[in-house]
Amino acid sequence: MPVTVKDVQKRLKHGGKLHNCTAQTTRFELPFDLKRLEGLDAKDYLRQYAVVSNNRIVLYQRLFQKFRNPTTNLIESRELDKCIGDLLIEGNVPRDRLAQLRDLTGTADLEQLEPQLFYAFCAVVERLVAGKSAGACGGTQKGSTQKRLGDLEECRRQALESADFAGLQYKLRDVNLKEGLARLLAAFTEEAARMQTGLKLSSRD
């Protein structure tokens, strides 16, 4: 049973933890009519359906400004390992893993990334490598009421995304997806299942 608003409010009141809520600082959405996914590759999907929250946009913009080519105002692909090293607390992602993520997101054949695709790529890395997108919800909740309510909203969004991806393979049975997008959505489906398990476990604490 998914976590309810009442459950989350109760846990915040008693200083409890909201496991996995951080994943929802970026949402990977699906159109109501899944047929709209036909013809899209992984890059197209990320440009259209990765919804990055304001706090993550600020971080990604800083990274972009730090590593961009000032002449083209684009991120060179050779700079991605440095970008991700700055992004993740854990440090650099192994080169083979970064190559897998670039292949998964359809960016392996690109020499440069524009801001929108770069932000989405960063969000994918955080989701699939770190299992999160930002830091506050994974531990004891502190700070202002406004911040805590923001954390609550992120948890609600996580439940919505998990619902979107639940049973996605069945929902896509009549949708003709490109192979690259099918693989990306499969990765998100697996991660959504993991997040939903975390929500269920946290609701029992």
Automatic annotation (TrEMBL):
Protein name: EF-hand domain-containing protein
Organism: Macrostomum lignano
